[in-house]
Design brief:
- By secondary structure, the chain is of the alpha+beta class.
- The chain has one domain.
- The protein contains six helices and twelve strands.
- Strands 2, 3, 4, 5, 8, 9, 10, 11 and 12 form a nine-stranded mixed β-sheet that branches. A three-stranded antiparallel β-sheet has the order 1-6-7.
- Helix 1 crosses helix 5.
Length: about 250
């Protein structure tokens, strides 16, 4: 018997979801974001298709939104996220906590508070919204099933964009000198490319061409040795052009 509680949601307009959150963008949205003066952060994670970094239950989802790249004597599948860089308030959020691009806001903003990753359940306690946001409003989830068809369609559009854009993201990263990834589940590598250079790459770089080698950044000695034994090119020292964001 399913005892999962129903989940309702009614936005209170507090602006918290638009503050301090990096919003994933499609390539088209990244072009719009840089065109409006926004900065984009690039996050990279990778895994070996038959080895470290790929939980069995996530295999299909992870493979569909990643791209194989050479890494040492093997290859890794890299997943790249372009996200609106919002360390503070989103620059489109006005003084009344209203979105200045509401009709053209990114897909992920339209989907909120739902999760894009099918392996991450919606947990109200993990969101910044005040408790009253979950006490009324339209029904979102009943018996662990999403009941809002419009949201379901938007989520699928976002997932499909991940699949369609990934080869182009790899090419753009290559043009910008981005070539080091964290291991999936172990962390991310984070880059803040020059906005003008990124905007130019977004307009000019296509998905064609040979793919240059990538490197995995890990700090755990045991994991380092495991990946090296698999033939991957690995590094543990930092670099001034990216940050390693590890998971505890």
């Amino acid at each position: 018997m399913n005892t999962a509680p129903d989940i309702r949601f009614d936005c209170t307009g507090c602006g918290k979801c638009c503050t301090g959150h990096h919003v994933p963008l499609t390539l088209d949205e990244a072009r719009q974001w840089t065109g409006s003066g926004g900065q984009v952060i690039v996050l990279a994670e990778a895994f070996l298709a038959s080895g470290p970094g790929l939980p069995a239950e996530q295999r299909e989802h992870a493979l569909r939104r990643s791209w194989p790249v050479p890494c040492g004597s093997t290859e890794v599948h890299v997943a790249i996220t372009f996200a609106a860089f919002n360390p503070g308030r989103c620059h489109h959020l006005d003084d009344d906590n209203r979105c200045g691009i509401y009709e053209a806001r990114p897909l992920v903003c339209r989907i909120y508070p739902m999760e894009i990753n099918p392996h991450i359940p919606l947990r109200p306690e993990a969101k910044d919204c005040p408790s009253e946001a979950w006490q009324s409003g339209p029904l979102l989830i009943h018996g662990e099933q999403l009941v809002d068809r419009r949201l379901a369609e938007l989520i699928e559009r976002s997932r499909q964009a991940d699949r369609d854009d990934i080869r182009g993201k790899v090419a753009i990263c290559q043009a910008l000198g981005i070539d080091t990834s964290a291991l999936k589940g172990n962390g991310f590598t984070a880059y803040l490319p020059d906005t003008r250079a990124l905007a130019q790459a977004l307009e000019r770089v296509g998905p064609e061409g040979e793919i240059a080698p990538w490197t995995l950044h890990v700090q755990d000695p045991g994991l380092y040795a495991q990946l090296e034994a698999c033939g991957a090119r690995v590094r543990s020292e930092g670099a001034d052009y990216y940050s390693f964001i590890g998971f505890n």
